[in-house]
Amino acid sequence: MESTSEILIHGAHYFRVYKDGRIERLFGTQIVSAGLDSKTNVESKDVMRAPEHPIPVAYDDSWAALKWVASHYGGNGPEEWLNCYVDFDKVYLSGDSAGANIAHHIAMKIDTEKLDGVNLVGIVLAHPYFWGKEPVGDEIKDPAVRAKIEGFWRLASPTTNGSDDPWINPIDNQSLASLGCTRVLVCVAEKDILRHRGWYYCEMLKKSGWVGEVEMMEAQGEEHVFHLRKPTCENAVAKLKKVAAFMNQDKA
User: Fold this and answer.
1) What's the rounded Cα separation, in Å, for the pair 20 and 7?
2) How far apart, in whole angstroms, are the C-alpha atoms of residue 116 and residue 137?
3) Spatial separation of the C-alpha atoms in residues 194 and 171, rounded to whole Å
4) N or C: which end of the chain has fewer CB within 10 A?
5) Torsion over CA: 43, 233, 124, 174 (sign)
6) Would you call 224 a catalytic residue per the annotation?
7) If the chain, 252 residues long, is cut into consecutive pieces of 10 residues, what is the mean pLDDT of each piece?
8) 157 belongs to the catalytic site
9) Which of 72, 104, 224, 227 is flagged as catalytic?
């Protein structure tokens, strides 16, 4: 009998998929339960992740969460803290890696499916997980590496048509001029294989006719989502300060 403990897919440092269908998470397992933290007043939501929940579940889940937050506009929502303290006139979305990808798509969606009372000012895309069939800039051209990255995407999205799927390559498949905010901050890392996609996104956003302001920040000598593994290192602290300054620019 074939061993069910045999690894079928090794997802870098993040997960393993076994032949019996079991998925073992290696990173990002330290999470808090959904709900309101009484000490910080931070509201945490459960998000269904791929590959257990294939694309587009993560996008639908995120949109549903934002709609729930928006239901508090006017002070009539189920969470009293949100009713009392959220400034719906100055909303920002942010995400790391795949979360940055989702933040972009939500910002595109909010342009066509308005949420009452919600003014999306800007988005922060940290090491955005974008890809494409053809290399951009000095992006790696090794077919084996590119095939491996596409393989991860196909694991998350079994029905995809490949690396030029608009979910993972919105830059070449969407009208970026319709981005539903006026400010964007893109953060990349020098040693991240996705670095060039972040720069490409910035370049194409400027050329799209989008009316807004885009900023870039690159962390020298760092790898993908380094700030999650080393939150107190110099570059992580600098990134946090940059994000804070970006969101509080009008309060100076």
Assistant:
1) 9
2) 40
3) 13
4) N
5) negative
6) yes
7) 56 61 60 60 59 84 94 93 92 94 96 92 98 95 92 87 94 88 98 97 95 97 95 97 92 58
8) no
9) 224
Sequence-distant (6+) residues with CB within 8 A of 246 are 122, 124, 183, 185, 215
Both ends of the chain: CA-CA distance in Å?
Answer: 67
Token pair, residue 5, equals 């403990």
Catalytic residue among 97, 105, 163, 227: 97
